[in-house]
Amino acid sequence: MVSRAIRVSTLLVLSTLAHQGIAQAYPSKLVRMVAPMPPGGSTDIQGRWVAQHISTALRQPVIVENRAGGGGVPGTDYAAKAAADGYTLLVGNAGPLTVSPSLLAKMPYDTLRDFAPITLIATTSMCLCVHPGVPASNLQEFISLAKARDGKLTYGTPGVGTIGHLGIEELAARAGIRLTHVPYKGAAQYMVDLLNGTLDAVFNPLPVPLVKSGKVRVVGITALKRHPLMPEMPTLAEQGVNGYESVLWNGVLAPAGTPKEIVVRIHDVLAKALATPEARQLFLSRGDEPSGLGPEEFGAFMKKELEKYERAARASGVPKT
Fold this sequence. Notes:
Layout: H1 2-25, E1 31-35, H2 42-58, E2 62-66, H3 73-80, E3 88-93, H4 94-99, E4 115-130, H5 139-149, E5 154-157, H6 163-175, E6 180-183, H7 187-195, E7 201-205, H8 208-212, E8 217-221, E9 247-255, H9 260-274, H10 277-285, E10 288-290, H11 295-315
């Protein structure tokens, strides 16, 4: 019995030393950061910030590889199927990771099964905006108006099944109102119609210049926290829809099976970087809220997001294709 206990203890020690060796030796070569979106957007910008900080801290080059197209699904799938050795990472976002699964009948990957969450980089709140001619200055007035007009208030989003579409449908369901969805090809098109009064409302990242000029009115913020660029504006949750949240986000993930020690090491580097005053100022200046959630917390966040958008898609009648 003693001999067996000694052998087990020795194996545990060797296993621990082996895992520590993996983390200490990593990285020994170039690391790729897959961005499933085109250059210039928030996913690409935040991915390059992440790559720079990992490279500096771990003293190895980290390159961003843009694999755009297909709503981010092909690039995300490419990262999911890469070797689980820490040398291919994904800067992922809400679209392909938590929205697309509620819309596509056949997904090439499972968000919770095929990825090892590392950290949530940042969240970006949106706002419910209306044309100044819409007689609603807050959420309760908007709800009352929507009930009085019963489905005649219109809202625009960049397509069917987007975060804006599902987010506002969830809000409508929880508030007990009916709205008419008008899908557009992009934000530029629906903002034109909002400004000329053809469209009543949109779910959109905060358009600060248009709000300050009085061309657009904000009814409420979609995050649980107030917007850093407009702290005086209450959130929709504060205005009566308890716990309501619909945000854009970016995070860092690795293929499932990546050694835990590598995941923890990358998280620690990024959490430390995101907590600096310089990083906080940079992110807040763009309207982003820096995060740094740990792997388990980030995984729980994605699970909650998946469940939310699945409910919203079914409630709005959007079929899986």
